[in-house]
Amino acid sequence: MSTCTVSGMVSDASQSSAAEPAPAPRRKRVRDPEARRAAILTAARSVFAEHGYAKATIREIAQRAGVTHGLVVLHFSSKEQLFLAAVPGTRDLADSVRGDAEGLAGRVAHAYVARMESADSADPFIALVRSAAGDQAAAKALLRAMREESIAAYRTVLTGPDVALRVDLLGAHLIGVTFSRYVLADGPIAAMPAGELTGYLTMTLDGILFGSAGTAPASS
């Protein structure tokens, strides 16, 4: 074999090697437990914001966080729980529940309106309403998680055998307001000033929570 041929082969091999892209560096695994949790929550907020609740996956969140799928589940048990942890909303309302029963409706109404007036599309109530249109299974799973969290919070203030029912009615009422004012943004509820809405909600929520506690309306 001639020197020119060998030289050409070496040159071709060098060019081929140079043309091949270097492998992408693997994301460094996060080892500290608190840092892992923080990385998962940060990645979750990003993925939920980009894809919405229904289309977001734990697998993509894990990849962005630099952890395994199993580790995400270990920390948060489900996509619903991860969503509620990553996107505070129902937990803000749970914080507003704390206090005496007398001022409960007003605290919840103020907290809901204050949060929703500055909320984005990743807010739990908005995510629930929007996901229901395209993925009912995802919406049901999220609703169950929100319901369980809410009932646990309200039981610290409310008593009686129908606490779960009253909390479910309250949630349904707020979801309806969310749909009218913050998703469709149409009609009298959407046009109402925030302060006026807070006042109306205080009255309606008080009726739901205390107006007929423990009794069901008589059937006609």
Automatic annotation (TrEMBL):
Source species taxonomy: Bacteria, Bacillati, Actinomycetota, Actinomycetes, Streptosporangiales
The protein, known as: Transcriptional regulator, TetR family
SUPFAM superfamilies: Homeodomain-like, Tetracyclin repressor-like, C-terminal domain
Natural source organism: Microbispora rosea
DNA-binding region positions on the chain: 57-76
PROSITE patterns in the record: HTH_TETR_2
Region annotated Disordered, chain positions: 1-33
Residue ranges of every copy of the HTH tetR-type domain listed in the record: 34-94
Gene Ontology molecular function terms on file: DNA-binding transcription factor activity; transcription cis-regulatory region binding
